[in-house]
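Support request, please re-run this one:
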Amino acid sequence: MKVLSICVLLIVFPIVSVSYAQETEYQGTSKKLLGVGSEFDENGNGFDIDYILEGELRNTVEIDPTSKSITFEYDSKGIEGDVLIIFLPQALIDNPIGVYIDDVQETSAIRNQQGNLTRLIIPVFEDSKEIKIVGTNVIPEFSNIVFTILILTTIFAVLIGKSKFSGNIRHSGY
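Re-run finished. Output below.
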């Protein structure tokens, strides 16, 4: 009988694992970082990143194409436990696979796709200073203009090489 009542309780009251971000009643304010990655954009515009946070992300965002990461500086403004909800364009960072707070991996971060945006929910604390998000790709190191110039230069070199060496080939009559 005892086993049956436990089974009924488990069915009626399911036990659900709840993340930190879902446990807290959140009081964050909607904010925006403007022109992130403008140094990599051929038009110089960059990306506008929306986020919700009680503290603040400073406008000094570091994008590292080599490590495929974006690093944000966090100011807690004295908030003990905060939650960052950030919306990252896929064109800026594709498939964020890791979140690091002060170089320690944050395993309770939640990620989901919303169209061409990735929404991350990340718990941060008063002593946190740096939030690094690592993806499978960040802003391409080379813009479309660079690739166009590379392709045209290669075609030009092949054509010059072909015309230069075509006159030196002798037909031996075999």
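The chain has three helices and 13 strands. Residues 29 and 123 are 15 Å apart (CA to CA).
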